Amino acid sequence: MTRIKNIISNQYHQLNLAERGRIETLRGLDWSIRRIAKALHRNPSTISRELRRGTTTQINANTHIFEQSYLAETGEAVYRKHRLNSCYRGLFDHCQTFCNALVTALKARPRMHSVDTFVHQFKTNYPGVVCPSTPTAYRYIDDQRLAIRNSDLPAKLRRRVKRPGTKHHRINKKNLGHLIEERPTVVQARQELGHWEGDLVKGKRVESEPALMTLTERVSRLEIIVKLPNYHADTCLKAFQKNLYDYGTEYFKIITSDNGAEF
What we know:
By secondary structure, the chain is of the alpha+beta class. It has helices at residues 17-28, 33-40, 44-54, 72-86, 91-94, 96-107, 115-125, 134-142, 154-158, 185-189, 233-247; strands at residues 55-59, 66-70, 195-202, 211-217, 223-228, 254-256. The strands form two sheets. The protein has a four-stranded mixed β-sheet with strand order 5-4-3-6, with helices on one face.
């Protein structure tokens, strides 16, 4: 079975420069389109389209008359140009007007826009011009595809972005202890002595000023008031311990206080 009579369809391949050179030579010998197609094992429509692409006007050196002739280099150049335009080059190549305007706006002093506000204004003022979204604009900056860097965006450097699937553990997070709702039911019912509530009464909010520490028994409403020279945490702790030992630890089962720094 010959190639031109093969009934199995093969994947189409573009003409290469060598085939275009043969077309130029055979066309110069006044071969017909079908004869050239048969010699190159190509479809006549392929040869016809190639002749239209690569045909150019030249001056005959002998007669000085304009003539139409096919050139392989011209056909190859036109093919590569069309091939380049047929491929999608991405959003970045189509939004250069926006990118140039964004760089100018962010480098202006005083600066009037952030990335987000500029994207919104650009879409409003130029609805027919290609404009990326705010996250895409930030991604261009991160990828250094624009003439601005993250150092030109001071607010972005201070912002911590939460990413899905990751947890941020605060090193210096204050442990607030158990919630007041987690107290035993016997404390909530006020049916048993020995459960106290503590609080601190401050005058002026100055650490060196004296304060009053109060302990209130929830059932009998007995009140213990202690004057403190200041409301530092260590001062409150010493006052707690002194009262426990003075009155007896057996009378203090649970002491509930708020989440103030002094406790």
